[in-house]
Amino acid sequence: MTNRTHGTLPATHREVRLTARPQGPLTDDLFEVVEVPVPEPGPGQVLVRNTTMAVAAVMRTLMDEVTTVPMPSFVPGEALYGSAVGEVVDAPGTDFAPGDLVEHRLGWREYALVDAAGAQRRDRDLLPDPAAYLSQGATSYMGVVRGAEVRAGDTVFVTGAAGGVGSLAGQIARLRGAVRVIGSTGSQRKAEYLVKELGYDAAVVRGAGPIEEQLRAAAPDGVDAVFDNVGGEQLQAAIALANRGARIALVGALSNQLSDSGSSTTEIDTLSLLARSIVLRGVALYDHLDLIPEWNEQFGRGLRDGTLTFPHARLHGIEEAPRALRELIEGRHLGAVLVEL
């Protein structure tokens, strides 16, 4: 029995639906905020009052009817989905109790009805701020540790370094013993932020000249490990500067995800890969879920002792969620982008 009869649970809540598939840049009319009844949980279901949700670049890809991403596309007329944290309201027939903190995949709504198997219990005391569970740090950690296999003494190049993934990847690489960390980003303002606030040694700026020339100046001795979020010219430059035995982790494809056409390709110099024994490895978090608890432990320690920071922006109110995604894709924010519900 929920608290509905006691008047503490509202009869309705709001969710954000996709109205149509985008044909170009995201616009406000592609979304609508709809008031719907708060769902009633059945046995084995968990009703969650969402407190914070995250937006991510992959959401633009999921708006297309057909994608190469191993996730279901959004459906016009239905609510979008994505990572969220919240408090359990009711959970009949499960081991969850009201007030438990959980993370799940049904963001973009104020209340979520989640199957018990889809709700991950989170420790309120592990991270200083529960919203930090929505960082993309587990992806960053995976790419650094298992993708690029960063080790002591490496020179590391992180593309898309000012986003939710890259802003943590550089910090993690440093903790793994990298001696020089270089990031790429889209503006001089963000480049200065990488160096002054996140501890990068240098930054290359998209649009400020050929990436390869900028990277050669920033890494005169070449690069040993690459954390690639972008593809395109930045990946080509990374291969050109890769030392013998370098490890290149393909973690994201922003040049593809954020293109208006939704598709782009990167020409790869395969002879360079062969001649210099360069490892080019695609890695995705769904193959490395075992790293999430390890990352959360390390993230909590790092946030408390100051060796890690969580760069992010927060918008407030579910009606701001479409704007949050649009501004993320337009590159207006540094780090992760969250919405308080």
Keywords summarizing the entry:
341 residues; alpha/beta; 10 helices; 25% strand; globular
Write the layout of secondary structure elements.
Layout: E1 12-18, E2 31-37, E3 45-55, H1 58-62, E4 84-90, E5 101-104, E6 111-115, E7 120-121, H2 137-147, E8 155-158, H3 166-175, E9 180-185, H4 188-197, E10 202-205, H5 211-218, E11 223-228, H6 232-241, E12 242-250, H7 254-257, H8 270-275, E13 279-282, H9 291-305, E14 312-316, H10 321-329, E15 336-340
Describe the structure.
The protein is of the alpha/beta class and 341 residues long. 26% of the residues lie in helices and 25% in strands. The protein has ten helices and 15 strands. β8, α3 (166-175) and β9 form a beta-alpha-beta unit.
Query: What kind of sheet is the major sheet?
Result: 7 strands, mixed
**N-to-C SSE series?**
EEEHEEEEHEHEHEHEHEHHEHEHE
**Which percent range describes the beta-strand content?**
25-35%
Strands, total number: 15
Radius of gyration, in Å, reads 21 Å
What ranges have pLDDT less than 50 throughout 5 or more consecutive residues?
A: 1-7
Query: How would you state the average pLDDT, rounded?
Result: 93
Oligomer: single chain
What structural class do the secondary elements suggest? alpha/beta
Number of helices: 10
Distance between the termini: 24 Å
Q: What is the 3D shape?
A: globular
